[in-house]
Amino acid sequence: MSIYFLGGGNMATAIVAGMSKQGGYDIEVIDRNLEKRQHLSSCYQVRCSEKLPTLNADDVLVLAVKPQDMQQSTAGIELNGALVLSIAAGLTINTLSQFLQNHQRIIRIMPNTPCQIGLGISGLYAPSNIDTADKNLAENIMRTTGEVVWLDEESAINRIAGISGSGPAYVFYFLNALQQAAIQQGFSTKEAHQLSLGTFKGAVSLAEQSGTEFVQLQKNVTSKGGTTFAATSVFDQHQLSQVVADGVAASVARAEEMQQQLAP
Ligand SMILES: NC(=O)C1=CN([C@@H]2O[C@H](COP(=O)(O)OP(=O)(O)OC[C@H]3O[C@@H](n4cnc5c(N)ncnc54)[C@H](OP(=O)(O)O)[C@@H]3O)[C@@H](O)[C@H]2O)C=CC1
Ligand SMILES: O=C(O)[C@@H]1CCC=N1
Fold this sequence. Notes:
By secondary structure, the chain is an alpha/beta fold. The chain folds into two domains: about 5-160, Rossmann fold, CATH 3.40.50; about 165-255, ProC C-terminal domain-like (ProC C-terminal domain-like fold, Orthogonal Bundle), CATH 1.10.3730.10. It is about 55% helix and about 15% strand. The protein has an eight-stranded mixed β-sheet, with helices on both faces. Helix 6 (about 155-165) crosses helix 11 and helix 7 crosses helix 8 (about 190-210). It is elongated. The two termini are about 30 Å apart. (2S)-3,4-dihydro-2H-pyrrole-2-carboxylic acid binds near residues 89, 161, 165 and 166. It is found in: Cytoplasm. Keywords: Amino-acid biosynthesis, Cytoplasm, NADP, Oxidoreductase, Proline biosynthesis.
């Protein structure tokens, strides 16, 4: 069995990194950019090529190009019954099946970039025609990159894209905002980076290791009439929680809109 990646960009690289670390998979990445192929084959135990070969039923094809590139990229592919795993946002099983000459052996996955270091979290959805062996195969592949959550309806892929798929970008956004605020307070860029990252690392590990609810952990930092309360009161005035909820809703809505726009 070989695992082929169509597209060797950010997300495919993150998954390949996780899989390579575990080892035991025969992986080939297809990308049209020479630079990306050279980078992938020099960093990981993978073959790279420009064109997808003819597949067979034992193989797995991971569709990892941008949703807008998918129809053109999959034209003429000879699957011969191979299992298809699509990580694309906004492309339903039905749409993918039409792109792939009515192929029916398709599982959808919504991963995220921390897969690169084995700390990803991926949502998986398989329609009812997919057998347990294929589900196990997809799950085992994604487990090499982190946690796996099975979703019982396809629309949940759009919703999980808005939380954990796009989510690392939200965290980096907040990290950058904290770093910029630290610079405004007179710290050097390097100090501001260290302070922001150290705060996130400590807080996330504390949340994980203590198992305490996030709200309680926030309370534990917040002394009555103290500095934290002064800061979070400003967040509340600006309705930061609602801003986050609105951002997530916009992400989910965009996935749904893409679904409409990209359907044949
Ligand atoms: N990035 C993320 O965090 C996540 C992404 N996804 C999904 O993963 C998919 C890939 O996203 P991402 O990795 O960010 O995108 P990238 O643009 O980084 O990667 C796609 C790669 O595929 C190449 N490519 C496009 N068409 C072809 C083709 N016909 N043959 C060979 N190579 C081709 C692109 O080349 P070129 O640069 O020349 O276009 C590019 O190198 C998307 O569908 C996205 O929805 C899902 C979850 C998270
Ligand atoms: O931004 C995107 O469309 C992709 C899907 C989830 C994360 N990145």
